[in-house]
Specification:
Layout: E1 2-3, H1 6-23, E2 29-35, H2 39-55, E3 58-64, H3 70-81, E4 88-91, H4 101-106, H5 119-126, H6 136-145, E5 156-161, H7 164-176, E6 180-184, H8 192-195, E7 200-204, E8 220-224, E9 228-230, E10 233-235, H9 240-243, E11 248-250, H10 257-274
Parallel strand pairs: 1-11, 2-3, 2-4, 5-6, 5-7, 7-8, 8-11
Antiparallel strand pairs: 9-10
Helix pairs in contact: 1-10, 2-10, 6-7, 6-10
Length: 275
């Protein structure tokens, strides 16, 4: 399979953001709330800080110990809501068990929701409210799926995901791009009947090597949103080795969705600042 280069796409997005930031009279500001010291979360946050500095976006990280209470985190988010220097905000997930992710994320002002997964903004997008945006992750997936010379309009897509928070806006974005979309959630029954007929597969399960060549047809485009650690290595939800000799396109893990998601976060922070 041919590799879809997420780093190249991310660099293109970041270059555009940098140009716009340089020409703007207002410097966008991104606040990141980080609770605990989960190694993956710490790494993600560092990458976001570095990318923000690269393009000229002010980024600040508000760190809390893993034992923090919910009221303290919500109080900080409310203070950031009132801070005019902050145009976008995210809470780095996952959160420790004593914190309710829905409650914490919902404390963000929807107008400063840099990820796009705030309930209010998801509902606005589902209802096709003018100006409502899909989550940045979903927009990044669609951008990766747009292989040069391979039109998506009228094609069949399958989204394999653990739940509707990501899957529903992803499906809506693909539908609005002209695809015929099927959503599949576990526990799966004969999922290959759908995936073998798909021209585009988006998978976000957190199950290493779940999707194999035998589950797909030739010339399929696969966007692997999975992130798993196996024997000290980061791998996706696709068994890339089984796909090696099959014609088609696949986002690698790492180097596919991850860099593009960071770039889309900063692109969205710029858009929030401009609005």
């Amino acid at each position: 399979m041919q590799k879809i280069d997420g780093r190249a796409l991310a660099n293109s997005i970041l270059s555009s953001v940098k140009t716009h930031c340089a020409a703007s009279s207002t410097r966008p500001g991104l606040a990141i709330v980080l609770v605990g010291d989960d190694p993956a979360s710490v790494t993600y946050v560092r990458l976001k800080e570095e990318a923000a500095a690269q393009v000229g976006i002010h980024a600040e990280v508000h760190r809390f110990p893993a034992t923090v209470d919910e009221a303290t985190v919500v109080q900080k988010i409310q203070a950031l809501n009132a801070n005019a220097a902050i145009s976008g905000m995210i809470v780095q997930l996952p959160l420790p068990n004593q914190l309710n992710a829905d409650t914490v994320v919902s404390a963000i002002d929807p107008a400063k929701d840099a990820d796009g997964f705030h309930k209010t903004n998801l509902e606005r997008y589902k209802q096709n409210v003018p100006g409502a945006l899909a989550p940045g992750l979903c927009e990044g997936v669609l951008a990766l799926a747009q292989v040069p010379g391979v039109p998506l309009d009228g094609k069949k897509a399958v989204v394999l995901a653990n739940g509707p928070i990501f899957a529903e806006p992803m499906a809506m974005l693909l539908t609005r791009a002209g695809l015929d979309v099927t959503l599949l959630y576990p526990p799966f029954r004969d999922f290959a009947q759908a995936t073998k007929d798909a021209d585009l597969i988006v998978i976000a399960l957190g199950k290493a090597g779940f999707l194999k060549a035998e589950h797909t047809k030739p010339d399929v485009i696969i966007v692997d949103v999975g992130f798993n650690r196996v024997d000290g290595k980061v791998v996706g939800d696709v068994d890339a080795a089984s796909m090696a000799n099959q014609p088609g396109w696949l986002t690698p893990v790492p180097g596919g969705v991850g860099p593009v998601t960071v770039a889309m976060l900063l692109e969205r922070t710029l858009r929030l600042a401009e609005n």
